[in-house]
Design brief:
Distance between the termini of chain A: 34 Å
Structural class of chain A: mainly beta
Oligomer: heterodimer
Order of helices and strands of chain B: EEEEEEEEEEE
Largest sheet of chain B: 6 strands, mixed
Largest interface: A-B, 28 and 26 residues
Helix content of chain A: under 10%
Largest sheet of chain A: 7 strands, mixed
Order of helices and strands of chain A: EEEEEEEEEEE
Helix content of chain B: under 10%
Shape of chain B: globular
Distance between the termini of chain B: 37 Å
Number of helices of chain B: 0
Shape of chain A: globular
Number of helices of chain A: 0
Radius of gyration of chain B: 13 Å
Strand content of chain B: over 45%
C-alpha cells in the first residue's frame, strides 16, 4: 500500500517534447506538493495545492503547469522540455497546509532526463 | 544568501562514531525545524522535527535548535552503516502554506 505514488519512475525524452508526471496519494490528505531536486541534491518547492486550490506557485517557468483534478491527485505537465529540466521531481502530501506542524510524505520521485 | 545553508559534505565516519550535522538559516521568524533522511534513489522521509528552540531526542538521534544563533543540528550517536544517507535540514517557511525550505543536504557514509 504505497502512500504517495508517482508515475513514471523514469522518463527519458528529447528536448522540445512535452511530458506529464502523475502523482496520487491514498492518505486522505488535503495538500499536495511538487518539488524539484537537482543533481546536487538541492530540493526546492515548485507548487502546492490545498483542496484543489493552488496555494504555492514559486518562480518556475510557465512551461510547467500543475493540475489537481481532485484532492488525491496532482499532475505536472511540462511543455517544451529543456536540458535544464533534467532532475528528480518529487510529489509530497500533508494533512493540511497551515496551522500546526504537518508532516509531508514524499513519493519515490520521477527521474527526468532530457537529451 | 540562501535562506538555509548546509554543508553538502560528503562526510565519512567509522561505525560507532558520533555524527554532527548542521544548518544555519537567515530568517528569525521561522518556527518549525525538520530533519529529513533520504536514501539513495528514494524520497525524503521525516526523521525529526522541533518547534522553536530546544532539544528533541529519539533513540540515537538528537535534534537541537538554537534560535539566537539561527543554528540547527542533528546528532547521531553510535552511528551504523544503515545511517548512510543524505540528511536534509528543512524549515517551514510558510505558516499557512506549509512551504518547506531545504538545505542542500549532507551526504553521510558510515563505514563498518
Amino acid at each position: 500500500d504505497t502512500a504517495v505514488s508517482q508515475t513514471p519512475k523514469y522518463l527519458v525524452t528529447q528536448m522540445g517534447n512535452d511530458k506529464s508526471i502523475k502523482c496520487e496519494q491514498n492518505l486522505g490528505h488535503d495538500t499536495m506538493y511538487w518539488y524539484k531536486q537537482d543533481s546536487k541534491k538541492f530540493l526546492k518547492i515548485m507548487f502546492s495545492y490545498n483542496n484543489k486550490e493552488l496555494i504555492i506557485n514559486e518562480t518556475v517557468p510557465n512551461r510547467f503547469s500543475p493540475k489537481s483534478p481532485d484532492k488525491a491527485h496532482l499532475n505536472l505537465h511540462i511543455n517544451s522540455l529543456e536540458l535544464g529540466d533534467s532532475a528528480v521531481y518529487f510529489c509530497a502530501s500533508s494533512l493540511s497546509s497551515g496551522g500546526r506542524f504537518n508532516e509531508q510524505f514524499f513519493g519515490p520521485g520521477t527521474r527526468l532526463t532530457v537529451l | 544568501q540562501k535562506e538555509v545553508e548546509q554543508d553538502p559534505g560528503p562526510l565519512s565516519v567509522p561505525e560507532g562514531a558520533i555524527v554532527s550535522l548542521n544548518c544555519t538559516y537567515s530568517n528569525s521568524a521561522f518556527q518549525y525545524f525538520m530533519w529529513y533522511r533520504q536514501y539513495s534513489r528514494k524520497g525524503p522521509e521525516l526523521l525529526m522535527y522541533t518547534y522553536s528552540s530546544g532539544n528533541k531526542e529519539d533513540g540515537r538521534f538528537t535534534a537541537q535548535v538554537d534560535k539566537s544563533s539561527k543554528y540547527i543540528s542533528l546528532f547521531i550517536r553510535d552511528s551504523q552503516p544503515s545511517d548512510s544517507a543524505t540528511y536534509l535540514c528543512a524549515i517551514r517557511g510558510g505558516a499557512f502554506t506549509g512551504k518547506l525550505i531545504f538545505g542542500q543536504g549532507t551526504t553521510l557514509q558510515v563505514k563498518p
